[in-house]
What does this fold into?
Amino acid sequence: MTALDSGVHGFDPATFVVIKNSLYAAAEEMKIVLAKTAYSPILKVAGDYSCGIFDATGQMVAQGPDLPIHLGSMPDAVKAVAMAFDTFEDGDVFIHNDPYFGGSHLPDVNVVTPAFHGGKLIGFAGIRAHWPDVGSATPGSYGAVTEIYGEGLRLPPIKLYAKGVLNRDVDAIIFANVRTPEERRGDLGAQIAANRRATQRLSALADKYGTDTLVDAMAEVMNYSERMMRTLLARLPDGESSFEDFCDGDGIIEEGDTEDQPFTIRMTVKKVGDSLAVDFTGTDGAVSGPMNAPLSVTASGVFTALKTIVDPDGLAPPNSGCWRTIKVTAPKGCVLNAEFPSPVVYANHEISHRVCDMTFGAVATFWPDNVMTCSQGTSAVITFGGKDPRNGQRYVSYETIKGGFGARPVKDGINAVASGISNTMNTPIEVLELSFPVRVDEYALTPDSGGAGTYRGGLAAHRTWTVLGHKARASSCLERTKSPPFGLRGGLSGMAARIWTEDAAGTLHGAPGKGGFDVPDGGKIHLQVPGSGGYGDPKGRDPAKLREDLLDGYVTGEAAREIYGVTDVEKLVKG
Amino acid sequence: MTWRIGVDIGGTFTDVAVVNEADGSIGVTKVSSTPADFGRGVIEALEQAISRYGIKPDAVTLLAHATTVVTNAILQQKGARVGLIATRGFRDILELRRSARADLYDLFQDPPSVLVPRRYRMEVTERIGADGKVVIPLDEAEIDGLIADLKAAEVEAVAVSLLFSFLNDDHERRLGERLRAALPGIPVFLSSEVLPEIREFERTSTTAVCAYVAPILESYLARLKGAVEGMGLPAPYVMGSGGGVFEIEESLRMPAMAAESGPAAGVIAAALAGQQTGRPNLISFDMGGTTAKASLIRDGKVETTPEYEVGGEGSASRWLHGTGHPIRVPVVDLAEVSAGGGSIAWVDPAGSLRVGPQSAGATPGPVCYGQGGTEPAVTDANLLLGRLDATSLLGGELPIDYGRAETAIKEKVADPLGISVEQAAASVIQVVNNAMAEALRIVSVERGHDAREFSLICFGGAGPLHAVALAEELEINEVVVPPIPGAFSALGLVGSDIRRDYGRTFFAVLDEADPAALEAVYRDLEVEARRMLARTGIDEADWVLERTADLRYIRQAYELNVTAPARIDTAALSMLANGYHDKHELTYGHANRAERVQIVTLRLSAAARLPGLTLAQKISARAGSGSEKARRLVWFADTGRIDTAVHERDRMAPGDTLRGPAIIESLDSTIVVPPAWTARMDERGFILLTRAAQAATTKGDAS
It folds into this structure.
């Protein structure tokens, strides 16, 4: 038995809770400042960022209620700064985005600010925020390239402000290399202001409780999360299981091929007592295109699933302590443990989605009551860029479209909502069309897209855009076009993803699931994202629920007959 | 003698507050709420109040009402069957929402209910573009088919929400005319009338909420109106979530405005109390059985926000988590936390103390009520620390089981943590106080206000027990405890103005906007507002029209509301821009004065002022007879358990000053006065608590 076995250490019960809650409140306060003052739609309305409070070594003490995808990888971003510099001063601000130095992919720009009290470093505030563009040949920086050099501006940990004074040289380099620099400046300003809020609050807490007490409490908050995860894990049965799935491809058509080739991921999960190990031995090697994941990105996906499985009531506050009891390994150089200079931009969300869903699939054999079926499994990114004919200005638009949230052992999946590692919002159509020269022609649920099952998978949405008055350069990043989201325990797969274009004459053309393509004036893009898998045999579905599905058009009469085995659909509907 | 009456329906009790217009004296009646038919409880409470205070019905000048009918219909999914008509290709917008889930890691979460099931969502061929021009004309030929479908579906209300109708309402208007003509007796809500503002989901949701609750609100108000008029009382006004009252007819035009009316009333009451005690800067703190709410009053003004979800979980920071249905109408800006007298204390599997979010509520209630509660609540902790009477509450009506509360705290909190019962109870109070202090922090410090410049006014049954501890946490030097804190919210109903808020989206960058065009929009809104004001019968001299604008930097997504001058010219535009920079700096700690500022929505608040009121507690005949009634050991954070005098509020006379430590008890609440604090009753029965150190230098009250 270790000192971690029970109870809070070194604090009276109330003081500990009060400091813990204040740290999480500070992380939420950062979110408000960032979201409400940022400029680009992906931050201000879609919410693609995470805010956190970190200790002096870069461990995450408190994550805001933001994105699960950053849970496991954010600490590396702050550790990279903590390791790259020997000394810190009040007023310093650091910036970086290099996936090979603690980043996730280049568009995710990390801003890290040290917090001081009485001249002593207490910890850091850090924000990872997705900039809609960080340079490269493709607007949105989502091109299918073969080296990280092609993915955009790469910033190792550097000091942007020294003691409150801006380094104008660095600033000039950054904004010379990104599209729509005015918008980026607004985003960076919001990140810096939000960090300042947190460092002020940390300093106030130190003033109130004493610096040493605060620093000790930060350590204890992480110990506490570790203790909670261990306690909850120990209550679940031991088990070991493997799972295999394949990805559509990496966006690169290799010499001699006519299409993008799939690659395979294999995982083994082993749980003993209060700890758990996930290993990816047997997974395919690095790919040419940007589907290579740094190990911390891979780990983030696994952590998201495990937090949901082990702690569905949210008892363990999300921080670095949660993951001490979980070990994630992958052979060096495989597609899940990228080595420089492999390109990585798609993998950040596509691989973490994938391993998150696979973790549910793997543990389903020994924890069948604690899992969900495969969710949409892709961020379904679509970007547009070009020159807005209304004002002659360059623009970059970045959207993600939502599919199904997995079906559970006791209930259906959820229609068209962010799942797994993602929790970004859609951009309102009216905001999108006022901001960019496109028109949305349809945004609707797709009947029968939820995998059939005793508990039906969540339906997916589809969206159609028309490009107005100019030629746009679009790019997509989509998975599960060939590998539809899996069901569990006899439930069927959800609908696979699909993307295609339509020219002004109405002729349809295929479009790549990953990579850039041109859309002419008046051309349309159609995007169908995946539904989630079903849970249990479709024949076991409660007829009353199926009737509701038919009335609402979630399931068609044809599917009711052919998949759910209803002999007289009309009779069922009439009731 | 003329009177004003306010009726506030809560989850447990329906409160009636009466105010004598001549001397400001107040009275309160409480009856149990009657959820099956809320109107019954209202009538019962009114009858009791009228007979108790000897009120002649024809001497009542204002009857105002805060109702939970709207919120209840949504929470219990008992609203009307609504047909929704959307632009072709977009009928699922109401269900697709903003696509984020409410909880990141909850495996078994459910999405919010969908107010209009897909089978009743229809589409019409039409499209307006982002420039407000018609892309696809409205296909009039489809309308008959839609009407037939709505009839076949037997819908009770209709909502119409078409894309970009806030820029061009022509299609909605034409469709609405046909629907209204063909569906007599069925209310039809157009998004361009309800909320002519950008963002299709939020606008559709607001419109759908209106349609969903309209029939139920209409029949409730019609019955109520009939019943009160039968008693000889005037027709009731309805309290709006933005903090004003309006006529029944007006509320049925915009039912979403009646959603959050009870909490709004509390803040209005606080503002009124501030006005009469000369305290324009107040933080209001309302603590009941399950939630605590904080709000900020600055220069006598109550802040409102359009960011609200009805039927969802409250959020202290106003960050909407997608648990309910957005309604973008002005709502009094409250920070709400799940912390109240009923909040349950427990020890989690990793050995840490937690308080809430589960609450023992009204039933079974805290363990000490002896009504079946087994989980220790905040009230039980207060009891064990000597802060509540150990034998009975509510003037003897509620017997208290001390032993059972002690056992529960021992077994569920003290033993698992390895600490004494007293330490356990004290820890529970510390944790719940911290959660509530966070709500106070959010409305003050986080928005750039120095909390030390404010007084804290507390109410709700449990507010006065905790208020001083919260004041100390935020370094606030003065706490105001109004008369009858337990039913104080209902007093806000009689102190409200008759008010309605109007808004219209107006996209323009300030430095290139045409002042005349802005002026024209404000004038349009004023024409509509003046029509409403004329109906009140209140003299035009008492009308107040206030212009504001929602502004943001050109690329931002969230606006801040800035006061606009009464006449818009070029100078007014730069005043607006500066107002925005200043408010941005205050709220978020940074501003970009070189950045261009964009107008998003122009707003007009129209109020008809009722004659001023001065609230006063009727001084009891027993006042001045010596208020100390007992002594007991009471626990305080700085001293532990010490001998403390217990006073009866009813026997205190104006000018009486008590030095802490002291407990002041009244029928509906208990005030804790810690050792370093002093309590003084003013001429109107308000109790003012000040830090002893400052007490000597505090100037006489303005009351």
Summary: DSSP finds twelve helices and 20 strands in chain A. Residues 18 and 217 of chain A are 10 Å apart (CA to CA). The radius of gyration of chain A is 24 Å. The longest strand of chain A covers residues 120-130.
